[in-house]
Design goal:
Pfam family, one: HisKA
Keywords: ATP-binding, Kinase, Membrane, Nucleotide-binding, Phosphoprotein, Transferase, Transmembrane, Transmembrane helix, Two-component regulatory system
Number of domains: 3
GO molecular function: ATP binding; phosphorelay sensor kinase activity
CATH architecture of the largest domain: 2-Layer Sandwich
Number of helices: 10
Radius of gyration: 34 Å
EC number: 2.7.13.3
Distance between the termini: 68 Å
Subcellular location: Membrane
Order of helices and strands: HHHHHHEHEEHEEHEEEH
CATH topology of the largest domain: Heat Shock Protein 90
Shape: elongated
């Protein structure tokens, strides 16, 4: 089956080659009495070059050979014969024949070389990402798995007597390690979804207040040494967003803040309704939902802010661990909902992530009044 398809493809290329040269020749023939035949030679050379950019080598060589014959037969006097009457035209014909062949061959080789370079670049990028993934996951996955296995071995050991209090602590450690492991696996799955382009936002009415507190409840162990503040207007309307994607976005941002800010730092979540057109970004875009996640930690190095949303990127002086996927997933999930995410440092210290969405709005206050 593959050989038949290949034969059909090659036959089509030969047909394209012959038809292209004949069509250009006919067009040039109409101007033969008004233009020098050398112009027809240049045009035919250009046609051979264009064919060499898209066809295989044999159809290209056929077009070069056919162009030379047509040039002699139709454009070099005496017409409609392969006889050439003078040395100048003979030299022109020979040079045209050689140049057409060389041009076709070289153009085809350049195209093949470019394809090989592209394949090598893709392979290199793939291996680079693969190595980065292995390096980051070697710590991030091994640590929680080791913690889980160690706690289970201690609980099941027949040679060690463990009090109920210590057992509860070990169970708590297993739960924390399991949640951390689940978080890393979720990030990997989400990144694979983004890479494959299968993310489709399922828009529904979303209560931002409920969203915030669900995320904070899931991260209560990671946030126990931080001050958390939620600032939301009690009359904030519902926004049409993908709740699942939004939960992962806020989770990654808050988790990131909990891991990379010192103990005692404040993490603040806020949401506002903004029905004003943002002319600085897009005059046709209505940013109705603005969410910010900020902290008063150390902030980000100014020279690295533009790179923090890149896949597998980790700050140069950050602590060990982390896969560098969390913020790239945030960016991908925000953009899947036609939103925009920005990052900037605060003058007083710390950082601010700003999420803006052109979401539909439902005012619950008006509904309750009705």
């Amino acid at each position: 089956m593959k050989s038949i398809l290949r034969q059909i493809k090659i036959k089509n290329q030969y047909l394209i080659s012959i038809c292209s040269v004949c069509l250009v020749s006919v067009l040039c023939l109409f101007t033969r009495d008004y233009l020098d035949y050398k112009i027809a030679a240049y045009i035919l050379l250009v046609m051979v070059s264009l064919l060499a950019m898209v066809l295989d080598i044999l159809p290209v060589l056929l077009s070069a050979f056919l162009s030379a014959l047509i040039l002699n037969f139709l454009f070099i006097k005496p017409y409609y014969t392969l006889h050439i009457s003078n040395a100048e035209d003979t030299l022109l014909f020979i040079l045209f024949f050689v140049i057409a062949f060389l041009n076709g061959v070289l153009t085809h080789k350049i195209r093949k070389t470019e394809k090989m370079l592209q394949i090598k670049q893709v392979r290199f990028s793939t291996m680079k990402l693969y190595n980065a993934l292995l390096d980051s996951l070697s710590h991030e996955l091994r640590t929680p798995i080791s913690a889980i296995m160690g706690a289970i071995d201690t609980i099941q050991s027949q040679n060690v007597t463990i009090s109920e209090e210590n057992k509860l602590k070990l169970y708590s450690e297993i739960e924390k390690a399991s949640l951390r492991l689940n978080h890393q696996v979720e990030n990997l799955l989400n990144m694979s979804r983004l890479e494959s382009g299968v993310i489709e936002a399922k828009m529904d009415w979303c209560d931002i207040n409920e969203l915030f507190y669900n995320v904070l409840d899931n991260l209560k162990e990671d946030l126990k040494f931080h001050k958390v503040k939620v600032t939301i207007d009690e009359n904030l309307p519902l926004f049409k967003l993908d709740y699942g994607l939004m939960e992962q976005i806020i989770y990654n941002l808050v988790f990131n803040a909990s891991q990379y800010t010192p103990k005692g730092a404040k993490i603040e979540l806020s949401a506002v309704y903004n029905p004003i057109v943002n002319f600085d970004y897009n005059p046709d875009r209505l940013e109705t939902c603005i969410i910010t996640v900020s902290d008063d930690g150390l902030g980000f190095p100014e020279e690295e802010i533009d790179q923090v949303f890149d896949k597998f990127y980790r700050l140069q002086n950050s602590k060990t661990g982390g896969t560098g996927l969390g913020l790239s997933i945030v960016k991908g999930f925000v953009e899947a909902q036609n939103g925009k995410v920005t990052l900037e440092n605060k003058e007083s210290g710390g950082s601010v992530f700003k999420l803006s969405f052109p979401a539909l709005v439902m005012n619950t206050k008006e509904i309750s009044n009705e």
